[in-house]
## 1
Amino acid sequence: MAELIDAYDTAMFDLDGVIYLGPHAIGGSAEGIAGLHERGKRVGFITNNAARAATTVSDHLTSLGIPASVDEVLTSSQAGAHLLAQHLQPGAKVLVVGTSALADEVRAVGLTVVASATDEPAAVIQGYDPNLDWSSVNEACYAIHAGAVYFATNLDRNRPTERGLVPGAGPQIDAVRSSVAVEPVTAGKPDRPLLDEAVRRWSADRPIFVGDRIDTDIIGANNVAMDSLFVFTGAHGKLDLLGAGPEGRPTYIGADMRALLAPPRVASLAGGRATCGAAEATIVGSEIRLDQPGGDLEDQLDGLWAVAQLAWAQPGLDYTQALDELDLVPAGQGQ
């Protein structure tokens, strides 16, 4: 039977929550990536996290048993720097609020990095910094009030770690946004620049994006008309999936990224009934009821995919009973 990846030439992956959680590889990710290489598929790793350089990310992946070249890694700091270069004159001054990795990418596109609003920067770019200095936030505000154009690498509200969710770039950027009342031009998912650049870099004709978040990964893929696989190894879970609007609905779901190497999960919908595999979901009054055979995770994912078809087709239905049958499927770390 055909595997999901057979329909695509390139597999693109989010990192945190899909390939690893903090310092640890997610189970099966090394084997899954190796399987894609064996099948001759292009692989690319894409992260909204602007704190680390692409070389650091590739070294981390390699240390986890997932050999990755620098050219196979694309960060939001790289996409953000390229976005700046499209808007500014060569050599223009940019105030960087972020790590040295972000500053290095800005220099690499021929722009001048400054640290103070008194240097009269043409733009400010902000990215996630685990050691954010509050004085740099103040300088960003001064510069933007003076007319600098505001850019951000990404707006993630949180990021998954091996111990749970912690604040991401979004809360840090909110400190500036709330003071200047200006929305930044953003490079990372779900906005287009990062994924558009990925398609160009890897010459992808038929890409699929694998992610663990509805708000960045799946909406981002949909924004560039790219098919997506939503996996349950990171930040979001079954509640996020069922509550997704049309812009956040994935093409496929799977337990983890190895679903690319299995037959695609396909559901059928007819009236008030949806089926997937041996699972059947039906509408009874104002509720979705699930006849869930078997008890392993894959069977439950079949049931969830059937329930999703009805929940999306008729928003407002109560799927509480159906969720009670899906106790092996994560609700999501944020729930």
## 2
Amino acid sequence: MASDGKVRFEEIEVERINIVDRDGTLRLVIANTERSPDVVLNGRTYPREGGRSPGLIFFNDEGTECGGLIYGGQRKEGKYSAGASLTFDQFEQDQVVQLHYDDENGDRTYGLRIMDRPTRPLAEFLPRWEAIVGMPDGPAKEAAIDEFQAGFGACRRVFVGRNRGGEAIVVLADSKGRDRIRMRVDQDDVPRLEFLDEKGEVVYRLPPDASPAGRNQTAVLPRG
């Protein structure tokens, strides 16, 4: 080891690297699939929902997970699936910013998502979620999941990207996660702008008529 405490390698091969503060607080993990860490929240660990993936997991000054980069892709039975996700978490909550790519044998979407999360810490929700996961499969469990998700209060507010329909799209949602403005260019290269009410019904659109005959129409915005 050099006198300055640094060691130089031309190449290393490891399954996991833990980056820690001087006091041992975990700050970053670089790991393969098998050695990817469980979720760490306020000193407790929880199984990672959706399984493990290789990548980087970020931890804040308190050692609680606060985002990460994961990725994967494989072929199976003549089909493939691939994906990647870079996320940043709200303090003591789940992700609020996500840059993602998801591809199921050509059925793909990718873009930027902005989420709203409750102000209550995620740890307050987890005991209830663990109890629901332990319930036997059936209508009662499904109802409990729906109730939990409704009370959790998370919703998507913004999406900018490409949807599974092949459209370049920007979606703005209200505080309840309901789409209220959609701006898109469809697969036929036709631009559209739609305003929606709280029930999801289009109340105004540009151009007024999306048919080929109406694409050259000029719309006048309502006053007031």
## 3
Amino acid sequence: MSESYIPRSLETVVQKAVREFPAVVLVGPRQSGKTTLLRHLYGRQFLVVSLEPPDVRLAALNDPRGFLTLYPPPVIFDEIQYAPVLLPYIKEQIDLHRDRAGQSLLTGSQNLLLMQQVTESLAGRAAVLKLLPMSLWEINHHPQGIFPWESGRTAGLSDPPASQIWQQILQGFYPEIVSNPDRDARLWQSSYVQTYLERDIRNLRAIGDLTLFQTFLRALAARSAQILNLSELCRDVGVAVSTAKDWISILEASFQIFILRPYYANIGKRLVKSPKVYFVDTGLLCYLVGLRDVEHAAAGPMGGAIFENLVVAELLKRYTHRGEEPALYYWRTAAGSEVDVVIETQDRLIPLEIKQSETPRPEMARGIISFQTDFGDKAGQGYVIHPGKMTLPLGKGVMTLPLANL
């Protein structure tokens, strides 16, 4: 293992998939560590072929069958979205030895088109896994942790001071920044946004005005953790609703944002139906809204929304890195009762409130108690997640939960 490599929670899931499937497709945003993870696990056993260089890509596009003859299994094809023409021929290759697992490992950064092509070509032959930026568990070298509602315990990582949490929020969770904390995170984020705009977005969908799209992206960031009023957003930016929906779908498909949808249940109340939007990486979120230092990020008007974004992104990453599709929702009634996150497990609904205050108070549990009243036995223990160190009851069935113990 290289000195800078930080173990990822997804490693055990990848290893299991490689033992069971002929092909494994690892998708996620650029720079989330896909290639690094596969090289770490299989770099000595598999040939690694990047399809990003123009000459390699051209060879694959001109003669796919001949190209695959040059690189027989076991092989890692990095950035497969540059040569999706290979997929039917990889299927053909797999079908010659259908019972042989771990033939081809593929990585890709663009979920929208890539997944459609993988589904068409490798249905039943490939496991599809997602790697997002790093979680706090991974950063703290605790990649196989479990949640308190699964273990019944609230002990967790060491309690970092609030300033350290906010420094991490500003830096973000991409491996390159985590592994090189002295690097200028803002410069990296600026480059990332520009690269993402110029390459991935143009490849996914024709966007005529990149400047307008960047304005839209910043306006969306300013609405993080809020219920999305699409009409208001479109009016402020000056784009049609249909265009905004298209751009949001692109951002979601390319792993830049996460849409938290409301939890529906027939409880005789009309629920709010609009989604909430969160950014997968808090560093990029802070960059887009112009936050440069811990003091302004934590004490500014977006402090609560950014801390909530951090927690939702943590939940998203941890479930995703276990190979699971996160069953995350929010709950709000027309009367105003609200729970920030509802986690749907096999047998329970876990309500979470997220508060930036380090001093939890009983009134913070009001929404959770309302949720538990409406859902009865289906609702499990509720938690108020905060950046402090206190673990204490806030009423029957509600506990405070420090972020470090999440």
## 4
Amino acid sequence: MAMLDKSEITKGRLQYHLRLKPGDVGKYVLLPGDPDRVLRIARQLDDAKEVVFHREYRTVTGTYRGIPVSATSTGIGCPSAAIAVEELANVGATHFIRVGSTGGLQPDVKIGDVVINTASMRNDGTSSFYVKAGFPAVADHFLTNALIESAIELRGERDFGLHVGISASDDAFYGETPEHIQMLSEHKLVNVEMEASAIFTIAHMRGLKAAMICGVSGNLVTADVVYEDENKPLIRSWEDAIAISLDAIYRYEQGSLESRL
């Protein structure tokens, strides 16, 4: 009996969840969680148009300095983020930058800061469907380096705090006990969020490129969080992260060490 190969049957055609088809997106895709944040990204693109909004997945495509760039919301958590990356790859996307929100795990990580992650501790279940236990979830070196270079250059004019290091990707927002948070902090992790480990893992297994930059929404160690009022520093950090990501794409596209390997 022939078993269904989902990857093979969905490649290069209209996608089931995102409702995208080849030609709808550029090779570079920014991945916020929230569909509303896709519209923030669109405002920093030229000629941005909404392609489709289905379920939690909103997609726009435009250009930045002549480079086609798309943005697709992933929803919350690794399962929906994994579907987004798989289906975007099926229609031609090759480079992904998660532009998200994150909680700080070290005392010096402040609300409104920007964090760029080099890897993620795999505390999710989704990535275990792709790789064995102990396999690292690592961002693409060259795309991440472009983010870091752009962030350093833009930091002077935009005045944000910047941190670079390893994150954790958890599955349960309300399951993060004080003991769990302490464990993450003691492992010297910079921050925790809910999507990177799947995005990094799937990109690696499919021969694609993925990186992540986040605005800090709160600090779980110092208990400096904003759960009810409008979090204006976080909103500002989203704008910073989007600007950094777009500049990084331009920088990456111009050529780097990777192109000389």
